[in-house]
Every structure is written in structure tokens, then in C-alpha cells.
């Protein structure tokens, strides 16, 4: 499996390096702080997972870019946004260097505090060509242990979104990939996991496990067809996976195929209603279990350009199991199906000197590689504010609960994992292209039954992480 990981890393690096660009330096413009799932706009400065969203925007740059209204389908694959900034083709290279002290590096050979450094480099790109609008962000690097306690790991992030408009049709192609040594949720104080995809179209990776290379990837295609001035239909198809390169066979690799269809009705310029149906087929490696999930939701969205993006959806959830799941601890009663409920919500609110973002999901998920299916609740929130003319602060947190759908012979009946994280960061520009940052994060996981994370076994586990670093990013360079 290491060969697969190395091949993947090499391929992504080559793809980023071979992009045909002609650079010309341009003045930068400061953009309003937004959660990381605002991928409809040109991709903002990449924030290292260990940098706690260090802000490197030019605080002294004048002018505010024009913002075009958001026109994503409410029943589509992406969250609604605040709108897209002025369109132009440009690219920006960036580099992050940071050092982290970790009180409980899961899987470390040394007890107590462990230190490690991370080095990342990448590119953010926005390319407009005829009917095509492409955004791409890639960062790759490594985590290097200072004391040999945690080992060395690869860090990779790839986010791609291309939109092609053809009269009444809009085609979208989306790819989100993360190659990390730990669960994606809350990794290094991130919220939203850098993706704009709806929760049912992306893998849930929200249970802390022993450190080891973990790959999460989502590939989605969407077609929107405008019927009238106010109505449209949306068709979505996708595939996502969660793959562990280490800690096998303890952890489960999962593959999921999804299909979604919906109808959108714009009630007013700011308000939209939609109804959608989503089908998901969960498959597990080395485990004779399949889960087929059917969700019907009614959705409402409100968008005020440059100020507010809000959406909420809820409805029934019909789930069937290839192998019946246990209904009590004796294992004598099983069920081949269940009826429950699903819900999701998202808000992005722009303030004069900062921004607020939050998201929520409830429904059936794959089980984060630890359980053969789970009922999942996922909540994340972030608040950023410019504290002074040059200093920006950020606080963020999240909570996830995974309650097992018990599969005979695998896992513990009714076991639940509860994971929470909270963090804060501060950043300050140092010249026009550099910024300094510092961050703190606490991670806590507890369960109603004993579990092991690395060398630690018990009912709960707690870690504190303190990071400092330097972020460099070029001004936008035009094609």
C-alpha cells in the first residue's frame, strides 16, 4: 500500500507542476473571511491544516471586489455561498512551515509531549476559458517527527471545481481529496474540511484512531437544467471512499456510490425551496455487509449576496441492510431495514470585520472506518474577526457522535463514539507576502465502551496541540 500512496502523491504533484500558466504580478485584494467551503469563488489562500487557518490576506490593500450573486442549485451537490468575487484567471503559489507540540500524539511511541514539524507547498488557481470556470487548490508536504515519537507522514489536499455553462444547462465536476495521518474532522483546527459538498455526498471521517495514513476522496458530477425563469431540475452522481493505508485489518475501508435528483423553485430573489431524493450504497472491505440508504428531503435556502448564505433540509431516511443488524444486546432479534430521519443545515454570515460559519448533519453514515455503519450527528462552527488593523483571530469547534448500527460478529452492540474539538488561532502579516500564526486546539473523545487509540485504552482520550508557524503566499499572478 505505501506504493499506492507514493504513486498518488507523485501524480498530484506532477499535475500541479504541469499547469500551463503565464504569470504577471498584480496587486492583491483582501477578501472577506469565509468558511473553507466557499469554493464557488476563486480559491482563497490555502490554510495549512497545522496553521489553524492563518490569514495572509493583504490587510492594507484597498478596494472591495465586485461580488456576483450565487446561483448554485439548492438541490445540488454544493452549499450555497455568499457569491463569487470578480472573475479573472490567476494563480498563487504558497508555502507553510510550522512546528507543533502535542500532548497525546495518537500512536506515538513516546509518552507525554511530542513535537513535530510540517512543511507544505502548493498552488491556488482560477482559470476562465469560454464557458468553463475552473478553480483548483493543491497542497502537499510532510509531517516530520522531531523526537521520533510519531513517525513521518504525508500531507496532501486537492480541491477541484469546474463549471461549464451551455445555455439552459450547467455541468459541474467536483473533486475533494485529503491524505492525512489522522481523522479529517477537526484536523489542525480546520472546520468544513475544505469542501463545499453536501454531507451525504462526502465520506464521514470523525472518529479518532491510531495515527496512520488515511485517504478520503469524493468525486461528483452534477447537471442542472433550467426549466423556467424560476425553476430547474438537478441530477447528481458521485463516488467517495475512505481508505486506510495502515492499521489493517482493524479499520474498515469503505466505498460509496451516490445518486441524487431534485427540483428547485425560486420563490423570490432571496428565497428558494427544493425537494430532493438521494440514494447511497455503502460497501466495506473484508466485511460481508452492504447498506443502502434512501433519503427524501424538503429544503429551504436564503441568500443575500455578500452577507448571508443559509440552507436547511430535513426528511425521512429509509435504510436497508444486506446482513440484518442487531436490535438488542443478545443478538436474537435482527432487522433488515429501519426508518429514521435525516437533516442538514449550513449558514455563512459575513460581518463587517469578520465572519461566522456553521454546519450540521444527522443521518446514516459509513461509520468512519471503525463501525460497520452508524447513525451520525456532526456539528461544526467557526468565527473569525479582525482584531486590529493587522491582527486576525479565529475560534472554532465541532462535535460528532457515531452510534453503531450493530453488525453480527463485528463491533460492540450500541457502542457510540463522541468526539469534540475546540481551538483558537491568531495571525499577523509580516510584510506583503508573509504572515506569522499561532494556534491552540484541544481534542477529546469518549465512548460508552472501552476503545484504544494508539497505546492508550479506556473510555476517553484527550490531546492538546500548540502550533506556531510561518505562511508565505504570492500575490495573484494573472495568466
Major sheet details: 18 strands, antiparallel, barrel
Q: Could you say what the CATH architecture is? A: Beta Barrel
Measured by DSSP, the beta-strand proportion falls in over 45%
Number of domains: 1
Regions with little confidence, pLDDT below 50 for 5+ residues? 6-63, 189-194
**C-alpha end-to-end distance:** 38 Å
Q: Provide the succession of SSEs.
A: HEEEEEEEEEEEEEEEEEEEEE
Shape: globular
The CATH first-level class comes to Mainly Beta
Residues in helix, %: under 10%
The number of strands is: 21
Q: Whole-number average pLDDT? A: 84
Word description of this protein:
The protein has 479 residues and is mainly beta. The chain has one domain: Porin (Beta Barrel), CATH 2.40.160. Helix content is 3%, strand content 57%. The protein contains 1 helix and 21 strands. The strands form 2 sheets. The protein has an 18-stranded antiparallel barrel. Strand 12 and strand 13 form a beta hairpin. About 13% of the residues have low confidence.
Descriptive keywords:
single chain, 479 residues, mainly beta, 18-stranded antiparallel β-barrel, two-stranded antiparallel sheet, 3% helix
Strand and helix layout:
Blueprint: H1 2-17, E1 67-68, E2 84-85, E3 90-102, E4 114-129, E5 132-145, E6 153-166, E7 169-180, E8 214-226, E9 231-244, E10 254-266, E11 271-284, E12 290-304, E13 308-326, E14 334-350, E15 354-365, E16 374-386, E17 392-404, E18 416-430, E19 434-453, E20 456-473, E21 477-478
Antiparallel strand pairs: 1-2, 3-4, 3-20, 3-21, 4-5, 5-6, 6-7, 7-8, 8-9, 9-10, 10-11, 11-12, 12-13, 13-14, 14-15, 15-16, 16-17, 17-18, 18-19, 19-20
